[in-house]
Amino acid sequence: MNRSAFIMPVLLVAVVAVMSSVFIVDEREKALRLWFGEITQEIDEPGMYFKVPFAHEIVTYDKRILPLDTQALEVTPLDDRRLVVDAFARWRIADATTFRRAVRTGGVELGARRLEPILTAELRQVLGGVTSNTILSADRVNLMTQIRDGARLEAAALGVEIIDVRIKRADLPTQNLEATFGRMRAEREREAADEIARGNEAAQRVRAGADRTVVETVSEATKNAEIIRGEADAQRNAIFAEAFGRDPEFFAFYRSLSAYENSLKSGNSSMVMSPDSEFFEYLKSDNVK
């Protein structure tokens, strides 16, 4: 009984000691083994490792690719056309020992904060050496490669490798947008006014041409009508002259009937004339044949 009471605590202490002496490194991590704060080993391979309890400290870091979003910053290209640039980077811890000495106990969060000024400075330097059109064109890929390579050299001092840098957006500052939009609106309004003026000018030419065509057509029709009317009158007069030459008496009688018809219509004005007038010659004559 006394022996069992003695063995159980010993076994418990032994299990605790063994568990305290073992640590596991995940495949997504890399670890540092510190002896009273001094780095003694960097572990990159996953597996089970041993340590001295209370003497060794194990520090682990994520060895996967990590994101870094920079704050939007304003850059001034060579053409003095200011742009607001928003970029992001992908990075990883390449040397855990160097990283630990650079950030101490700050970890990945402090490493990201130390890395952001490096990336921001490189953005200003590279983008400030080109025009805004280059930044907004397909050449931006080459610019991002330059930014990555430049930042990678400085980031190596932190034990960090920058995998990639990308520009998410490059826009005009807010205070410049309204002025730019105002210029665009004015330009479009000017173009619209020019188009309207050209359209009105073309419409005026079409209307003038149509009016000239109408006048010419009416004039030609009137001329033809007058010619036809004159030819008809000539033919009529020729017929009348021929009839008059054949039978003057009948021609005079026909002309008198036409005069009676036109003068004695209802609604005409009253006529006052002598009963002996020649106008009534055929109305009172009994000798007409």
TrEMBL record:
Stored CDD domains: SPFH_HflC (cd03405)
Cytoplasm keyword on record: no
Presence of keyword ATP-binding: no
Name recorded for this polypeptide: Protein HflC
Main location (coarse class): membrane
NCBIfam families recorded: hflC
Pfam families cross-referenced by the UniProt entry: Band_7 (PF01145)
Family: Belongs to the band 7/mec-2 family. HflC subfamily.
Spans traversing the lipid bilayer: 6-25
